[in-house]
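Job type: complex structure
Entries:
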Amino acid sequence: MATVTEIRQETPTARTLVFDVPGWPGHLPGQHVDVKLTADDGYSAQRSYSIANGDDGERVELTVQQVGDGEVSPYLTEVLEVGDQIELRGPVGGWFVWRPHSSPPVLLIGGGSGIVPLMAMIRSRGKSDTPFRLLYSLRDPGQLFYARELEKVTAGVEVAYLYTRTAPPDAGRAAGRIRAADLVAYGWPPETSPDVFVCGPTGFVEAAADLLTELGHDPAKIKTERFGPTGG
Amino acid sequence: MENLDYQDGNALAGPLSEIFTLDVTTAHGTCAGCGRRGALAELRVYGPEPGLVARCPGCEEVVLTLVRGPKDAWLDLRGSVSLRIPITE
């Protein structure tokens, strides 16, 4: 069982839950957990959530975006309080992970709450000299997760914000969905053979992965994680 | 418009960890429908109710289904010719 030790509001509809999980074996950035909620009548619902923090003892952080008609996320974003316990299974998933000893440049492309496992990778980068570039697609500035922390990352991590609906006046890019020009301007060229991680809603991931392969990136170097239409 | 109501094979990692001790989502399989090779993590996964249905991203054939009941798990691998499972020391 995992116990909530801290809660941080990221946006009006998303928050980070910090858990203490006795016996946690550690995790790799990009791995996820399955959260299982069981009602008194035995009905249970399960969802996967990416781990947001780097490996840190028995501490596990999840950032959960509320989905309107979701079965699990409203409970996690509105009801759960510090001291409450829930069932976590994990860490699971060995595919969508970045191993800090790998050396090629890293290109992270996140849509909405798809930023979460990518943030775990940034947080795990530490003093590694692997250069990172992050393209973070979000609806408007109010949807930004980890605002203060992303503002502070500098050496070796470049961040570009791709606003899809409303961009701030100083954005330097008209609002709109991710396009090839964004990958050219803010990504790594295919010749540098970056390790690419794309995460977000299914439509976003399909679009970004298609643009990458059209630009000449090797599909074998592109790892993807799709949340489904919205997550849940 | 294309139906985007799916996740990918990463979502199989937890449910399959109940059955296998190794992470099978990194295993490479061959689709019985079109012969495409790829990691289970790359499959298109529909569900979770009544069960998880994983389809080939190349030809949409069903590669794997997993239905979890209260007392057992029912795993059907009919669309997979073989699986190459990485084993680390």
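Summary: The first strand of chain A starts at residue 2 and ends at 11. Chain A touches chain B at residues 32-34, 46, 48, 89-90, 92-96, 201-203, 206, 223-229 (CB under 8 Å).
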